[in-house]
Amino acid sequence: MNRRRLGNTTLEVSQLSFGCAALGSRTAKCESKAAVARALELGINFFDTAPFYGQGESEKILGEVFAGRREQVIIATKIGLYPSAVLRLASKVKPLVRSALVALPGVGRKLVQRSVQGFMRSSNQVKFDPQSIVTSVEASLKRLRTDHIDLLLLHVTPPREEGPQVIEQLRKLQSQGKIRYYGASSHSDDDVRFWLGSDGGNIAALQIMLNLLEVPAIDLSVSLAAQSGVGLIAREPFARGRLLPPAADGKLGFVGHEYDARFEAFARERGRTVPQIALQFLAGATGVETILAGMSTQRHLEENVKVLSLPPLSAAELTQLRDHALR
Ligand SMILES: NC(=O)c1ccc[n+]([C@@H]2O[C@H](COP(=O)([O-])OP(=O)(O)OC[C@H]3O[C@@H](n4cnc5c(N)ncnc54)[C@H](OP(=O)(O)O)[C@@H]3O)[C@@H](O)[C@H]2O)c1
How far is the CA of 168 from the centre of ligand 1 (A)? Predict the structure, then answer.
């Protein structure tokens, strides 16, 4: 698997990176551990987790799998977003809700899905005060069984006025050797401009939702990142399910997002699937250093690694896809 340097850091990350959001929650512990171990075997060395994922279970799984081989991997984890007590309780009944939803007819299912999702989002806790940052990092180090975090990301954007105080705390952690680099996960073009413009500054990497359906966002972030030397991590390559053909078994993956079938003919003509084309498109986007995908099923993991070793899309094909996406 190809490796690239993440912006101006010394981190050499695999072109495909492993998103750990489903570990220990949507994906059972045993299956999660097997997928992480297999990813490492296949040459993936960059893993993105958070205290929020599986309420700490995702970090624990990485800690267990990488015990004794920490130096082989680059770990990003996050601060700032935590599940509330209500959410912790709600997540216990989530599997039951999912199975009940599969049985509901289309419109009813979407309505219930959206309300559940809205409730989950509004129940999150955002904390960026200095003590919460320190406590969160110490807990992550313990769960990850390590003495340093390679890249610490802000899971959400703090209020602009808190920015300088947060950065000061991150610098302290860096000088103590607890984190090597810090960066941010961004959620809008405004965030990208803030972090990559004169206001944000000083960050090593930005994690952004960049995919075939986000061509303008790719253009904006690639041009700003190139000016500032910030590394770009393209997360959610399958656009929250919009680039994933519906599962044959009706299993629910992403909530409330319709599949966008526009790229099917293009993929079929090349003997590929839409998710494969989605990855190849990002692999051809200059400036994107790593593609961060969730892939806890071994079949998906192996398929995604394989597709990045195939001949890349030509410049003409990339232009054709861009035009198609912008239509
Ligand atoms: N605010 C933030 O910081 C933030 C927000 C969102 C995401 N993230 C990070 O980005 C990562 C990726 O995001 P995501 O997992 O939400 O979205 P994603 O990578 O776009 O989609 C993951 C989904 O795609 C499926 N999949 C993977 N490869 C496939 C293939 N070849 N064919 C068909 N389906 C395939 C996976 O199934 P299986 O799992 O069953 O294999 C999973 O359901 C997260 O894990 C997390 O690390 C961060």
Answer: 32
